[in-house]
Amino acid sequence: MADIPLTRGQFLLPFVSILDDIGAPTETLLERSRLPSSLAEKSDLYLPLLPALRFVETAQRSQGIADFGFLAAQRLHFSHMREETRALIAHSPTLLVALRHACHWASREDTILSMWIEHDADHVRVCSRLAGTAGLLHLKHAQWIQNIFSVYIVRQFAGPGWMPTAIAFESSYAPSPATRSCWPNVRFLSGQHAAWISLPIALLSLPNRSAASFAPTRNNEDGPSAYDIVDLLKLMLPAYLDEGTTALADVAEIAGVSARTLQRKLALIGLSYSDILDTVRYENASRLLQDTDCRIIDVAFSSGYTDPAHFSRAFRRMTGVTPRRFREQSRLG
Length: 333
Description:
This protein is 47% helix and 10% strand. It is of the alpha+beta class.
């Protein structure tokens, strides 16, 4: 746990923009909370979390703003997340893999933020909590931000209109009627063990819709960037899946780069070569399962697996379901 909890300045910008829109003394409120008054210029930097929460609550009370956390969450969007996190999600083959990446890298968004996935019958909960803040006042503002980003991640796979079945808060919080009207058919719960959203378990196997819309900032290195290499590998590897030449050393030699360079480039965006290979294998297998009547064992061999049992375990890690169940779901849906 970090001694000084920090949050990214990006997450305060929506609160600031609301205050600016209503003509509030935003700079004065920031200064009183010991936060930089020129926040827009420092939005990619980290700020202390507790003064940030005090700023939001003081502004809500002094300006008479109802459900400030909800209103700010409405102004957030997927691009407020770190570029590295967005890249991992954009290159995740399924929603389950994307959520696992988000859970693993959550502390890069807030230094004391943890995320995890819980199973609850035919639903899963995407949970989040700020460590060491139990009982702290004004957490509802932060928990709206935590939950809305989980919603936005799911929407990269389920579509922009997707709604969770439930939204939960660790704090004692009851949304206003106006807020509830924006989330029809969504249950709101308070006093929970964590902030969380609920979604049907069947959604975990949804394929990615976001890669084409992700436009990362390119660095000035010579040669292709890590993002370019990911795209090139995903184009090249399918031709070699059933050839037995997908080992890192073999692929690097075929591509004309060193294995070390390949690993280093991918590590810059938090990926490994095995991540890319698993994705390509999954995409090949899911296409065959959906579009053909190939036997499961033949799908396994065609996707580069020599052991059908290994294939089933790997496929389930990607989707949360077996290949046979995936085929059944895709034909039902």
